[in-house]
Amino acid sequence: MASFETAPMSSAGGSATPIIGVFDSGFGGLTVLRALVARLPDARFVFIGDTARLPYGSKSRRTIARYAAQSAQFLVQEQGAEFLVIACNTASALALDAIQAAVTVPVLGVIEPGATAARAASRTGDVLVIATDATVQSHAYAAASRARGLRALEKACPLLVPLVEEGWTDHPVTAEVIRVYLNELNAEAAAAGLNPDTLVLGCTHYPLLRPLIEGAVPAGMRVIDSAEAAAEAAVLQFGGGIAHAKSSGDQMTSMELRCFATDSVEKFERLGSRFLGRPVGKVELVDLGG
Ligand code: DGL
Description:
Layout: E1 19-24, H1 30-39, E2 44-49, H2 61-78, E3 83-86, H3 89-102, E4 107-108, H4 111-121, E5 126-131, H5 133-138, H6 140-146, E6 151-156, H7 160-165, H8 172-191, E7 198-202, H9 210-216, E8 222-225, H10 226-247, E9 256-261, H11 265-276, E10 283-285
Parallel strand pairs: 1-2, 1-3, 2-9, 3-4, 5-6, 5-7, 7-8, 9-10
């Protein structure tokens, strides 16, 4: 069990505004936070990126579950989070049960909202999903899609996370890698007799590549951002608590954010603002153990 040594987010002023904890293996989850902030501008957020142990997408279920549970406990036990959003497809796909067992607050993952958004978008009932290796091997999207009457074809795109981490979000090499992956996926779909009209971005890093991806999909294909879909679901699930705090006259400020990382604080500060769409501010280093 990890020990944590950071002061919790201040409740100065007696504000009862709920704290929403947001977790990712790195800083891709800031795309989910960005979508959350846009919808809940009065909420207080604590974000942790487990940058020391990224990528999760190439690790085993057991390891991912252990890492994710530690981050969830940090957010709840040390930072007072009352709701958790697992802003990581890999952790959502492989460790949602482990996270829910590790904490006592409501936990929302990104897979179910992504599949729900795909259901709403698709007319043919056939969808494509791109994600990390671990997410694809778990077939979490295929299962969530099947439960909604969709057929899903999943493809691992392991080169994309490192390219985003490198900051190559608008680079010809990245565009070419995306083109190759999507050509392969479309060929596999045709061979399987599918007629897909929707592509799910099943990794929180991929929204940063959205312009390149939209430029590479066949005309008319809809691109679903699981970050946006998760934020919509979070508002439905947690938004009432925020609205209640506001209507009860609790002291509300504009959005408060505290960011933690388990490594690479400077890189997080540098690249994080690109993911969040605003400066991330000072990122604090935390040690979650091994
Ligand atoms: N955050 C992960 C996801 O959404 C991608 C990065 C990783 O592999 O850890 O699947």
